[in-house]
Amino acid sequence: MTTESTATAVAKPGRALNIVLWVLQGFLGAFFVFASAAPKLLGQSDAVEGFDLIGAGDWFRIFVGLLELAGGVGLVIPRLSGLAAIGLALLMIGAAYTNAFIVDGYFPVATPLILLVFFVFIAWGRRAETRRLLTRGR
């Protein structure tokens, strides 16, 4: 076994952790597709009002909705789950910043921060797949 394959084998989660990660990924994937991305992409009034409040146009609402849709779907695709979690974690950093400083606490800051913790946990648990995906071309 080479050093690279040993490092990858060590980084794979155990059975119990793998089950926890898949349950979390499935729940958060469905949440982001149906409860977060869909309202933005379908132009629901509360989503439109939220983006109007921060001074962003419809293009930004649709862009964020597409990122959330891609992330939600990516969470349930084994090879993409770690990368999707990283992308959604970055999106949650932006959401927390926006909620805290741009709209002056109008939206809860705790929600994106809690989601950030979950996405960091998923990214950590799926780091072997992410490493394999990113080093595949080398």
Report on this model:
The model has no long low-confidence stretch (mean pLDDT 90). Helix 1 (3-11) packs antiparallel against helix 7 and helix 5 runs antiparallel to helix 6 (110-125). The relative contact order is 0.14. This protein has one domain (20-134). With 138 residues, it is mainly α. The protein has helices spanning 3-11, 15-42, 45-53, 58-74, 81-102, 110-125, 127-134.
The biggest beta sheet is recorded as: none
Q: List segments where confidence is low: pLDDT < 50 over at least 5 consecutive residues.
A: none
Which geometry do the CA atoms define?
Answer: elongated
Listing every helix as H and every strand as E from the N terminus to the C terminus, the arrangement reads HHHHHHH
What is the rounded Rg?
17 Å
Mean pLDDT: 90
- The domain count comes to 1
Percent strand: under 5%
Topology, number of strands:
0
How helix-rich are the residues, as a percent range? over 70%
What's the N-to-C terminus distance?
19 Å
Structural class: mainly alpha
Note the total helix count: 7
